Amino acid sequence: MAQEAREVYQLHILLLKISPAIWRRVLVPSDQSLANLHYILQIVMGWDDTHLHRFLIHGKTHGISREGGLWFRSDPQQIRLSDLHLRLKERFVYEYDVAACKS
Questions:
Q1: In Å, what is the CA distance from 47 to each residue of 3, 40, 53, 58, 68?
Q2: CA-based nearest residue to 93, from 48, 28, 37
Q3: Which CATH class is domain 8-102?
Q4: How far is CA 69 from CA 15, 63, 97, 98, 99, in A?
Q5: Looking at residue 70, what is its pLDDT?
Q6: C-alpha 63: how far from its chain's center?
Q7: Of residues 50 and 71, which shows the higher confidence score?
Q8: Using an 8 Å Cβ cutoff, are 94 and 49 in contact?
Q9: Which of 2, 30, 64, 65 is 20–30 Å from 52 (CA)?
C-alpha cells in the first residue's frame, strides 16, 4: 500500500525589533495543527509557555483560549497548516507575550 507524501513547510522564524537578529529555521509537516505549531515554537525558541499568544494569519487571529486571557472563535487543535493554504514566502505573525506587545 503506497503512502501519500506529506508536504513540509520550512518556516523562518525571526524575532522583530531585536538586534542582532535572533532567528530559527524549522521544518513542520503540513498536517500539524496551529496548537502544535505553538508548542513547536515554544521548544525551538527556548520559551516555557507562560505568556498569552496568538497567530495573525490572513487577517484572522488564532490561538489557545485561556480563562482570564484571550478568547478565540476557532479551535487551534482543529486547524491544520495545510488548511491555511500558505504560499511560498508568505508571512504571518506569531505574538508571544501578547500583553507586552500591546504596550
A1: 35, 10, 12, 25, 21
A2: 37
A3: alpha beta
A4: 23, 11, 11, 10, 10
A5: 64
A6: 9
A7: 50
A8: no
A9: 30
